[in-house]
């Protein structure tokens, strides 16, 4: 169960981070201008939520580091994951459910040169959201659940390095007089062949 919790937490962070980066390049909003011609402007996720890309990259980094850090950093990363997920959920929910004109202001200003909240608001006739903000909101909720799962189970995770060291120590205790194994390379194989020996043969001494 603990291994599954760690795996699910890491996978959730990696998936949400990757999808967040993808989402930042997709169209989130379509703004129709009240300029007589009804021009449409598309707004990407990065333009609607400028912090979407850096936060998604941070989540990717957290997911990659979660399985190798110690207990203290697991809790720190868990808190960061919850904080990032909450911020992403709040920002994406605003756009998905309220479609504010402020989310398209920078794109409208770049296209028309008009600045100021009132002037941009008067120029924009309508704003329509695509499914991407809602999808990002759902992914943020998944990340939030993963963050709480990290905080609930982090102390009981097993570090791969420590488990390997424990297994090595156990093997050494079981055979304290056994010589330390030496890396076997291509040169060893060539020397054995030149002497007429089979390099693949098991030379470990057995019971007589």
Q: Could you explain the architecture of this structure?
A:
Helix 3 (52-66) packs antiparallel against helix 4. The protein is 63% helix and 9% strand. The chain has a single domain, classed as Butyryl-CoA Dehydrogenase, subunit A, domain 3. The protein has 208 residues and is mainly α. 25% of the residues are buried. It has 9 helices and 3 strands; from the N terminus they run αββαααααβααα. The longest helix has 28 residues, at 71-98.
Which descriptor suits the 3D outline? elongated
| Tally of DSSP β-strands | 3
Roughly how many Å apart are the termini?
Answer: 45 Å
Mean pLDDT, to the nearest integer, reads: 82
CATH overall fold name: Butyryl-CoA Dehydrogenase, subunit A, domain 3
CATH class: Mainly Alpha
Structural class: mainly alpha
Going by CATH, the architecture would be: Up-down Bundle
In the predicted model, the low-confidence regions spanning at least 5 consecutive residues are 161-169, 183-187
Determine the strand fraction and express it as a percent band.
Answer: 5-15%
By oligomeric state, this entry counts as single chain
The main sheet orders its strands as 2-1-3
Number of domains: 1
Determine the fraction of residues in helical runs and give it as a percent range.
55-70%
Radius of gyration: 28 Å
Please give the count of helices. 9
Q: Could you give a short account of the major beta sheet?
A: 3 strands, antiparallel
Q: What order do the helices and strands follow?
A: HEEHHHHHEHHH
């Amino acid at each position: 169960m603990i291994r599954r919790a760690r795996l699910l937490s890491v996978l959730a962070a990696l998936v949400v981070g990757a999808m967040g980066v993808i989402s930042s390049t997709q169209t989130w909003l379509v703004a129709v201008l009240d300029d007589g011609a009804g021009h449409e402007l598309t707004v990407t996720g990065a333009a609607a939520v400028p912090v979407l890309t850096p936060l998604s990259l941070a989540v990717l980094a957290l997911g990659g580091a979660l399985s190798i850090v110690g207990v203290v950093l697991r809790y720190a990363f868990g808190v960061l994951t919850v904080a990032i997920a909450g911020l992403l959920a709040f920002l994406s929910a605003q756009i998905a459910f309220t479609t504010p004109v402020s989310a398209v202001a920078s794109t409208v200003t770049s296209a028309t040169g008009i600045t100021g909240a009132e002037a941009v608001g008067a120029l924009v006739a309508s704003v329509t959201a695509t499914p991407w903000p809602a999808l990002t909101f759902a992914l943020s909720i998944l990340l939030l659940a993963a963050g709480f799962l990290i905080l609930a189970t982090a102390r009981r995770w097993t570090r791969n390095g420590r488990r390997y060291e424990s297994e090595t120590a156990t093997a050494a205790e079981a055979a304290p007089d056994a010589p330390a194994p030496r890396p076997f390379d291509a040169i060893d194989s060539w020397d054995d062949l030149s002497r007429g020996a089979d390099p693949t043969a098991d030379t470990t001494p057995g019971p007589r």
